[in-house]
Amino acid sequence: MTDLHTRTHAVLGTTRLILHALLWACAVVLLGLTAYRVHYTKRLNHNDILTSSHHFYDPVIVELIVTSCLVIIGSLWTISTLVKRRVKGTAWGFPSFAGEAIYVWVVWVMFLVGASITTHRWLHLKWCRGHHKECRILETIKGFSWICYGLASFILMYAIAEWLLMEYERSTAPPPTYPETRTAQPEPVAAPAATETTYTEVRASNEPPVVGTTASNEPPVRTTAAAPAATETTYTEVRAREEPPVGTAAV
């Protein structure tokens, strides 16, 4: 990991930490506003300026209460994880990153639904917000709903950016090297090469002399014997050539 990547991770982590802290604070404010709205409508005994119902509650307000509670718990967990990461200097693990991504995506959808329905239902309240507290509360709920949605959008965007950066580092990182601890196995000793030596032995054959005779009564004439024929014998000797032993070395 280069210094540029390290600084980029630090900037992204710090930005997400700040955004989660802001989202947690806005969720606390939104929880208080929506709780007041539910308390007001459940104890309503007379006609309201916006409705003629009594003892009721708005489902979208309850949905925002649930979303705010989820954000308060999830942001605390994410903030603690990011702080531990910065203190220990450890990398962002997959389970923690996946948990944060799923949590942010869920609250992003819930805030989008809640803010859209609230805005559609109480779109124009300018005519009553100057004289009635209930209208001002609903206007504030709409505003904080969209603020929380925007913060969740930025958190999700920064989380995706850091995930893409980690994937790029993983794909371009060189393969890890490990120290060699194995012991080299001795190579099998091949059979010694054989040397072949050929000897040729030549021996004279012992043949008796040839004596010639004539038909008349002349004394026998000894003829000169020819040179004895030579016999050639070939011997082949095969010897094994001695080679020095091959030693083994530990790697």
From TrEMBL:
Keywords: Membrane, Transmembrane, Transmembrane helix. Residues 175-194, 204-251 are annotated as: Disordered. Residues 183-194, 223-236 have a biased composition (Low complexity). The keyword Membrane applies. The chain crosses the membrane at residues 17-39, 60-82, 102-123, 144-166. This is Uncharacterized protein.
